[in-house]
Amino acid sequence: MTSLHTSSRPLGRCFCCMLLSCAILISTPLLAQSDSKPNKPEAKKSTPSQNNTSKQPTASTDKNAKPTEKSDTKQSATPKDTDDKSSTNDSDKNDSKGESKAAKTADAAEAPPPPHEAAPAIMPVSRKWNPINLDPLIMPSPLPQIRYPWEEFKFKVLEDIRLRTNIFDTIFFQQASNVIGGGPHNQTYNRLDVGIIWEVFQHSPEIYPFIGNGWVEFLFRSGVNIDHNSRFFNLNTATGAISNPNSLFQDTNASLNILSYTQSFFKDEVLVTLGRIHPNQYIALLTVANDESLQFTNAAFDGGQVIPSIGTYSSGLAVQVLPTDWFSFHGVMINNIGDANTINITSLDQGDYGFMADLIFKPKIPKVGRGRWHGIIWQSKINDQSGVGFSFIVEQHIGHGIVPFFRYGFGDQAVSPARQQVAGGITVISPFNRIGDMLGVAAAWTDPSDDDFRQETNLEAFYRVQITNYMQFSPDFQVIFNPAENPEDDIIFLWGLRLRTQF
User: Were both Cys, which of 70, 146, 313, 385 would link to 257 (CB 3.0–4.6 Å)?
Assistant: First the structure.
């Protein structure tokens, strides 16, 4: 045990040095360019909120119909957020392109500041809220007398203090054909997410020429079983599956999942996040399979089971280097002793850390679309056991809203829940020309690290319907073949109904 503990530290230090060296090498040309041409106006870059793909959606409307090609770039820490992973704000089209508030109120005769002097705000100020352009099945809003004043308040009042809210509630009913021990076969679970991003530091180019904006992110989450007395009951355990069929579930009534600070550098080319984070916001992020409230609910398609702690919430550090439209580098260091129930500051000196690096290539194929190809390596230490692994992911837009994806991962069974996992599927954004709708079908095969568990196969299909501008309804169907921890059942069917409401 001692030798494992000792040997893991040099690996961790080497890995940290490698991440830091990559960040310095990639960002050095940016620094040199800024030094040599300080007064050259540059085209306005997208702000973090406009291109964010973190684990938490960041606004009240869905842009699945018009996925951007840079869905992850300038990602603020917002957990599992954009492309389709989340609802985003269509009113960004009417924003002020990042102009400072002072520039907007300046005398008409005074020339506006050049682009490099305007603060690249996370939320451009003084924009006007317009109704969302979606295709609601029933009506735009069931309570416009309440909804529209609230939207006006968010865009006219909260943006003045550079604060954005992302509040949504998800109800998920799920029924299983078989469970271990003959217990309850169904579960109705409700989860409330309260997300806040607050820009607390604004760019001052005349004082800090290479320092951008800084923002704080919070994610408060509350979950409760509606039809069971025990909050701990869940079909994830009852079915015996290694890949949880309900990723929405957490076994705590309330938790502070994310509390972090992000600082941008070099005109948003480098982002550094420190605090309580979610690794899957930055590593192995699939834009069409990363939000259990809007997309696939099975964990096999949302992060997977190979990379240790990929789905946890814990103290850590994340670095994103975004030098071009076609390439980015993400690195994460995470404390493996932690979860949504624990604020684990006291365990920082125990040395159980995970290190992850994700090289993302985003080729644009003519007449087809933008892709996202990931190469991931990681090293992790848990309870004096160390291991390494790798994954690769291919996600490619091929036109007409069709986005197939594929992922393979291999990990050391000493630290990985699964030694191998293969997952793939196809999604259709805005099928039948319905803006806001989404169709997804996927399959996964998992080889557990525990030799006593069976190799498991999962299938899932869902269709998300935009029933109002702020509500999505999703029928979901899953099949589990050979549940890994359930030798009694060879096949389990699950069907579910999910309702998500944005506030």
Answer: 313
